[in-house]
Amino acid sequence: MFSFLKNTLVPLLLLSQAGPGAAASPAYPTAPELSFLYTAYVKCEGTLMESRGPHGIRKAIPIVGGNFTGPHLSGEILDVGADWGLTDPQTSVFSADTRYNLRTHDGENIFIQTSGPKSPSGQLHLRLVFETGSEKYYWLNNVLGRFMM
Ligand SMILES: *[C@@H]1O[C@H](CO)[C@@H](O)[C@H](O)[C@H]1NC(C)=O
């Protein structure tokens, strides 16, 4: 479950795909390199809703604030979002499914979606998708993000 996220600020490490990697060998493509994007503290509140449905147990965990700090991107997390995570009825594994908003220190808005299951080690490795109309941060629309927690 996700209980460690409730009523707390959680440090999160975010990695994003860097530019083009080394030249691929003909036999195996090289793995893309990752570069650090930011560390985030995501403030969540207690579960607002928990309901068993056709895909498992769906929760609604409000995301009410926090911040993010990195070399190219920093700012605050707005009080407008939630994690609508789902617990797989067969494995009891929780998968996060969040949507929330970032506001950069220079006033730009970024919509973010993250998703992914908790790994057997207990770590969360989330996939991230950014969306922004900001000219300055438009490059984020093409970033493939990975969130480690
Ligand atoms: C982000 O939030 C954490 C937890 O409240 C706090 O310790 C940290 O100082 C904040 N960072 C910034 C840059 O505001």
TrEMBL record:
Keywords: Signal. The keyword Signal applies. InterPro entries: UPF0311 (IPR020915). It comes from Aspergillus oryzae (strain 3.042) (Yellow koji mold). This is Scytalone dehydratase. Residues 1-23 form the signal peptide.
